[in-house]
Specification:
Low-confidence stretches: 149-155, 437-448
Largest sheet: 5 strands, mixed
Oligomer: single chain
Radius of gyration: 41 Å
Mean pLDDT: 77
Strand content: 5-15%
Amino acid sequence: MREREESLLDFLQDAGIPLIARLESFLRAASLGLALAGVAYGAASLALEGSNVWSADATWGGAIPSLCSAPLYAMAWRAASKRELPRSGFFLFAALLAFSILASWQRGAFYPGWYVQPFLCLTASACLGIVPGLSLSLVSAFSLAASPFGGEPIAPGVESEMWLHSISLMALSLASALTGVLLHKVLVAALQAGARHQMEQLETARALRHSEKLLRHALRVDTVGDLAGLVSHQLRNAFQVMLGHVTLHALGGDDQPGERLRLVGETLMQSRPLLDQLMQLAHPDDGAVEDSDLSAWLHDFAERARRVMPASIEVRCEPCPTPLPVRLEFRGLDHAMWNLAINARHAMEQGGVLTLAAALRDGMACIVVRDTGTGIPAELQQKIFDPYVTTKPIGQGTGLGLTAVARYVLSCGGRIEVQSEPAKGAEFTLRFPLAVAASGRSAQAEIA
């Protein structure tokens, strides 16, 4: 972001603050309205007062002040239409000062119209910066110094005090301009500090998102490594089957070679999904948000888990009798479920039962992952989702897997719960909000 020292409006426009769009619209409307009003009033004054176009007796000084300021209003409107906010502000302040000076000129230094000048000088310096603000303030001061020559004393004995009053009012206008310059400095410094703070927050948030993305990728790689071990075990079994068919055919006497080729082909087709799901899990991102039936998805996941889990572990699936419409990042859910399934596999070294159930509880779609393994110690259950907490031996677990699962569930607007008893297994419940469009129908189905 580039700061222009001479103009607060420059800084605001460069910063892209949404309020600037409204300010530009206001400047366009106000400048155009004042330009048309000045032309209309000047024309009316010329028609009604004739030759008295600029005098102390005419209202607002006659036609000259309005007609002279109207072109400046028009230039302010044109600049605002081109989104040149600083130029528009300069022409608008110049028009206001010109109208105030010309309307007060013929009436002397004691005319109340001069008292508007300090306020205009303060505002112009605060908004436009040092050079434009002080330039307009000097024009105002010089005009005020020359005004007593064209004015009449308002009472006997006042004429000798007009110069003193003019000098005092000039000093007030210049002091107001200097105050505006200081105010301009303070405002720009405050806005710049706020912009820096906002940029730092954005950079911090971006860095955190990047770090979390790297962490998720690292955890996915860790899960992929565990899954690759299970997949390689199943592939080894498949290769043994195919090698057996090839060996029997090579020994001769095989009267059904076509049947053996068919069995080899079936084995290959059964092995292909193992590699597909391994590649899908290794994908670096979590994918897009999708609408789907959580119960149907869990049934598909259970089929994939059966292909990977060793024969000593039975995978059971208990789908929900009613649809569970949800809106989730299913690639992230896939990673979370594999993490829980692999943890269950490690907890059931001697075999057991892994149950995957889908249910509708308290108006939320639930996935229950239950195993019959060693369980989780009571002292760890309250902090099992904290980083670096693990039940695995030293060197065999990072303690970040369940943390990643919990973060995923929370990011979907859900929650995760755990129940476990030592030597009796563990049960994880993942709760997700139902899709809005179908939550009412599902709730009715649950009541029925």
